[in-house]
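Weekly structure sync, notes
Attendees: PL (lead), two postdocs, one rotation student
Agenda item 3: pending single-chain targets
PL asked that the sequence for the first pending target be pasted directly into the notes so everyone works from the same version. It is reproduced below exactly as submitted, 118 residues in total.
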Amino acid sequence: MDASESETLPPELERFWRTDDGLTACQRAEAYGIDLSLLDDNLRLSPAERLRRNEDRLREAESITAEAVAHLLTIESDGRAILSLTLDALIRAKRAMGRPRDLHAVLELEAIRERLRD
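Predicted structure, written out during the meeting:
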């Protein structure tokens, strides 16, 4: 792949990266499907509160990461080995993060797990 190919966006994404469309960055992000309420919530916090939350999340992530290593599986795809969490471990990790988008994902993942068991 040459440099020009790596800089070409697929047509379905290109419209979100344009800056001459008269939209603000926030409007483009919302059109792309990004939930800006999380950003708004964080910006209401003081810098010290944001740092404290970040440190809490990092500690949670470290404990999740240590547990996750025990729940990795290897998936072969196109001759490549891909490491992934088991479905149950992914659900536990998403639930532990507790963010709205993670809790939404938990609902989907639990439905997937239920369908796979049927």
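Discussion points:
- The mean pLDDT is 82.
- Residues 40-117 form one domain.
Action: rotation student to compare against the earlier draft before next sync.
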